[in-house]
UniProtKB/TrEMBL annotation:
Entries under Gene3D superfamilies matching the protein: Ribonuclease H-like superfamily/Ribonuclease H (3.30.420.10)
Domain of life: Eukaryota
Source species of the chain: Araneus ventricosus (Orbweaver spider)
Protein name, as recorded: Tc1-like transposase DDE domain-containing protein
InterPro entries from the UniProt entry: RNaseH_sf
GO MF entry, a single one: nucleic acid binding
Length: 101
């Protein structure tokens, strides 16, 4: 049961010639979660009831990303490599949220 759907986020900006897509890295991943995703969950009042899942791509495993996720979701609500509940490395979904409620 979902309270709302978090739409896809894109790593791009408008340059002189139009949209420029950026490579995702640990810094951009952390920035996305810190500046967009977590505030959206907080606005909907569902951080404490959300299970966060992500695959094992290198940006997701950067130490600052893992620390930020652990701060907001705790080890028991994260399904990801390097956490107690691992997500399969060949998962078709890079990350998703399960809002339980």
């Amino acid at each position: 049961m979902a309270v709302f759907i978090a739409v896809p986020f894109f790593f791009e900006e408008i340059g002189p010639s139009g949209p420029v897509t950026h490579t995702v890295n640990g810094t951009s991943d952390e920035s996305l979660f810190h500046n967009q995703l977590i505030p959206t969950l907080q606005q909907h009042g569902c951080v404490d009831s959300t299970i966060f899942m992500q695959d094992g791509t290198p940006p997701h495993n950067a130490t600052p990303v893992k620390q930020l996720l652990n701060l907001h979701f705790g080890n028991d609500r994260i399904i990801s490599r390097h956490f107690p509940t691992a997500w399969l490395s060949q998962s078709p979904d890079p990350w998703c949220l399960l809002a339980m409620g």
